[in-house]
Amino acid sequence: MNTAGTLCRTRSTNPAFAGLDVSALAGRIGCTPFFAYDAAAIEWRIDTLRAQLPADTLLCYAVKANPLPALLRRLAPRLDGADVSSGEEIRRALAAGFDGAQLGFTGPGKSDADLTLAVRKGVRLCAESIGEIGRIARIAAHEGRPARVAVRVNPDVAVSGTQVRMNEAGVFGIDSDQLPAALRGLRDHRLTFAGFHYYCASRMLDADAVMALHAFCTADALRASDDAGLALDWLNLGGGFGIPASAAEAPLDMAAVTAHLHHIDARLKAAHPAARIALEPGRYLVGEAGIYVCRILDRKTVRGRTWLVADGGAHHHLHATLQPDRAQPANLPITLLQAVPRAGTECVSIAGPLCAPFDVLARDITLPVSQPGDLLVVFQSGAYGASASPVNFLGHPPAAEIVL
C-alpha cells in the first residue's frame, strides 16, 4: 500500500496498472466510483496468448465480458472476431471495427429482429435449437440473403473444476442426440453449414479439466461431421478460461492448455485440412486489466464487527459481491489508499450504499486503518462489472468508465 495512491502489483504476471497513481486518476475523473481499464495490459494478454496458440487459431472476444465501445475499438484490430449475444452487441462490434463475417451470434433466445440484423450483416449464426434453424431459414428467404449457420452443441460430458456449466441439463445448445436432425434441417432448408460451437463452462482454472473438455468436444464434432458427411472448417471451442478471484486460487496453466491445443489442431486438420479452431475468451482477456475504485463514506461498529461503508457496491460490480460463479464467496483482491497516512492494520468488512444485505464488497479482510475519504481499489474488475450489474437499483448514478 502506498499512501500517495500509487498501485503496486506483486502477485500477478499481468502488467496491468503497475505504477498507476489512482488518487491522481480519481482527481482527473472528478468522481467515484469508477472503472478503469488498462488497454496496454489487455493487448499484452492477447499477444501473449496468440504466441502460444496454433498459428491459424481464430482468437475472438466474448463481448458480453465487457462491451464498452472504447474498449472494443482498442481490441478489434488485434483479434480475429467476436462472440455476440444480442442485436446491440452486434451493433457495438460493427461500430468498433469488426466485420460482420467475423462475428458469431450465440444465445438461446434470439429475437426475429436480431436474427434479421445478423443475416443482413453476414454474421455467423450459432443455432441453439432445431426450431431456431427453421426461423433462420424463413428470415433468410424473406431477406433474399444467404445465412451461415453453425450448430451450438450441448454435449453429453461432465465438466469438473467450475460452478458455472452451460451444458448437461441447461438450456444452451442442441442436445448431442438431436444433432443428426439439426444437420438434416440445415440441408433441407439449404442453409450453409458453418461449423460447430461448444461452450460448456466458465471460470475454469483447472488445466486438466479444460484439456479434457477440448478433447471431448473435438471428438464429438469430428464424429458428427463424419456421420453427416460434412466438411468441417470451423470448430469453436468457446472460452471459459478463468482468472484467480482470490489469493487461494492459482492461475490457469495456459501453457499446458495451449500445448494441448496444438495436438487438437493436428487431429482436426488430419480429418479436415481446412478446419480452424476458434476460441472466444472474455474474462481471461480483460478481467485482470480492470479496477473498480470507490471511496469510503463512513465507518461503524455493529456487534463487534467494524464496517466500512463505500459509495460503490453491487449496483456497479455485482460480481464482487454475490460472485454467483463460486461455491463460496471470497474477497476479490482489494487495496486501500489512505488520504492521510496512518499506521497499523485492522480487520474490516466493506459494504456498499444499497439498502440490500447482499451489497458487501468484502468480509473480514485485513487492510490499513481507514477513515472516510480513503480510496478502495478492487482488482480483477475488467469483466462482468458495470454491464452485468443492476445499475438502476435505488437510483444511484452509474460508475464512470475509462480506458487508459
Give a structural overview.
By secondary structure, the protein is α/β, with parallel strands linked by helices. It folds into 2 domains: 129 residues, Lyase, Ornithine Decarboxylase, Chain A, domain 1, CATH 2.40.37; 176 residues, TIM Barrel. The protein is 30% helix and 23% strand. It has 11 helices and 19 strands. Strands 1, 13, 14, 15, 16, 17, 18 and 19 form an 8-stranded mixed beta sheet that branches. Strands 2-3-4-5-6-9-11-12 form an 8-stranded parallel barrel, surrounded by 5 helices. Helix 5 links the parallel strand 4 and strand 5. Helix 5 crosses helix 6, helix 6 runs parallel beside helix 7 and helix 8 packs parallel to helix 9. The chain is elongated and about 70 Å long. The two termini are 21 Å apart. The relative contact order is 0.16.
Short structural summary:
The protein has helices spanning 22-29, 39-52, 69-75, 87-96, 112-120, 130-143, 179-188, 207-228, 254-271, 283-286, 318-321, and strands spanning 34-37, 58-62, 81-84, 103-105, 124-127, 148-154, 164-165, 174-175, 192-197, 201-202, 234-236, 276-279, 290-302, 305-310, 334-337, 345-351, 360-368, 375-378, 400-403. The chain is α/β, with parallel strands linked by helices and 404 residues long. The strands form three sheets. Strands 1, 13, 14, 15, 16, 17, 18 and 19 form an eight-stranded mixed beta sheet that branches. The chain has an eight-stranded parallel barrel with strand order 2-3-4-5-6-9-11-12, surrounded by five helices.
